[in-house]
Design brief:
The chain has 8 helices and 11 strands. With about 240 residues, the chain is of the alpha/beta class.
Length: about 240
């Protein structure tokens, strides 16, 4: 059986700012249908790495190779939404990445609008469709951003703390939804998160950024759950296959 398609290949990649690398070089192949979580303390370089993979930041050194025609989408933290913009939820759902980078390209067709409504229903927030963004709580805004992802046809999604402001059950449901997108649509997700305990049952690999210790560790959830260093940094987790 052939291995899944490689969507992104990082070779001796160093990420950072002002020509200063935050982490040692990383070699990583990201394949179709994977769910990968990136964990580390604040300032470790997690978001910088994610944005570099997408091409939003230039590498300090090394290379990032993305497959031709790769459709990417970026789901930021809900706090990044400007509450002063008088935008309704259904309007926000009409401004998403469809092919390549198209944050500012509206969906104009009826089918696209229907995808947005279906995505809201999947997340149990259909009632928010006509609400304004500035009227929503942090958790509601995050669900709207996830709905935009569900309605897209992205090959690769990068999510920055997608479960911030969510309770435990909602966090687990979010990672379950990403797992289903990987299985049913072949979508790959890279998730920057602190919710590692809720994520491990749904992910394929964990990337740990540990600048003060082991540098970068890429492992399965089972391997991570058995790592003394990980326990020292983040506490114990219980992984269930």
């Amino acid at each position: 059986m052939a291995s899944p398609e490689i969507l992104v290949s990082c070779e001796r990649l160093e990420v950072g700012f002002d020509r200063k690398a935050l982490l040692p070089p990383i070699d990583l192949e990201i394949r179709r249908g994977e769910v990968i979580v990136v964990v580390g303390h604040n300032g470790a370089g997690k978001t910088t790495f994610a944005r570099t993979v997408l091409g939003l930041l230039r590498p300090i050194a090394g290379t990032v190779r993305r497959s031709k025609g790769l459709a990417c989408t970026y789901v930021p933290q809900a706090a990044s939404l400007d509450p002063t913009v008088p935008l309704r939820v259904d309007e926000l759902l009409g401004w998403g990445a469809i092919r390549g980078w198209g944050f500012l390209r509206p969906w104009k067709g009826r089918a696209d609008r229907e995808l947005g409504r279906t995505a809201l229903a999947t997340l149990g927030v259909s009632q928010l469709a006509t609400r304004r963004i500035d009227e929503l709580s942090g958790g509601q805004r995050q669900r709207v951003l996830l709905a935009r992802l569900l309605a897209s046809d992205a090959d690769l999604a990068v999510l920055d703390e997608p479960t911030a402001a969510m309770d435990g059950p909602s966090t687990g449901a979010t990672f379950g939804a990403l797992r289903r997108l990987a299985t049913e649509k072949g979508m790959t997700s890279i998730v920057v998160t602190h919710a590692i305990a809720a994520a491990t049952s749904h992910v394929d690999r964990v990337v740990v950024f540990d600048p003060g210790g082991e540098g970068i560790v890429v492992a399965t959830p089972t391997q991570i759950s058995e790592s003394p260093r990980f326990h020292a940094l983040f506490g114990g987790i219980h992984h269930h296959e």
